[in-house]
Amino acid sequence: MNNHLIFQKIINKEIPSNILYQDKIVTAFEDINPKAPIHILIIPNCFIKTPNDINANNKNIVAHMFYTAVQIAKEKKISKDGYKIVVNCNENGGQEINYLHMHLLGGVKLKTLY
Ligand code: AMP
């Protein structure tokens, strides 16, 4: 499915979204259907389809995604109470958009998944 184009259009500001942070490597924006008071998606600016596509050449991008998520959590003042960072992979993992993304969820006590 070509739904990864949605996220590419958000990066390029071709469709509206609430971008909280953007640099040369990543873009962070509010999830359109938030599952928590704070629900932000962090994506790489260059296309990576799923976690399976992380490799030796792009693994530093993923570190920067993680770093960005933590910085936003601190800015949103949820770091002390805590938060979840979730990455879904393919069908069993519940990945609906075929573009690697990190969910930053917080602002409420979240249920554990396991
Ligand atoms: P996942 O199930 O891990 O693939 O999560 C995809 C996420 O993308 C869901 O939480 C959606 O609400 C979110 N989403 C889909 N389209 C948009 C959009 N246009 N702007 C912001 N978030 C979106």
TrEMBL record:
Return one GO MF term.
catalytic activity
Q: Which residues form the active site?
A: H101 (tele-amp-histidine intermediate)
Q: Which domain of life is it from?
A: Bacteria
The residue ranges of the HIT domain are: 6-114
* Ranges in a coiled coil: none
InterPro entries per the UniProt record, alphabetical: Histidine_triad_CS (IPR019808), Histidine_triad_HIT (IPR001310), HIT-like (IPR011146), HIT-like_sf (IPR036265)
PANTHER family according to UniProt: HISTIDINE TRIAD HIT PROTEIN
Protein name, entry field: Histidine triad nucleotide-binding protein
According to its UniProt entry, this protein's organism is Buchnera aphidicola
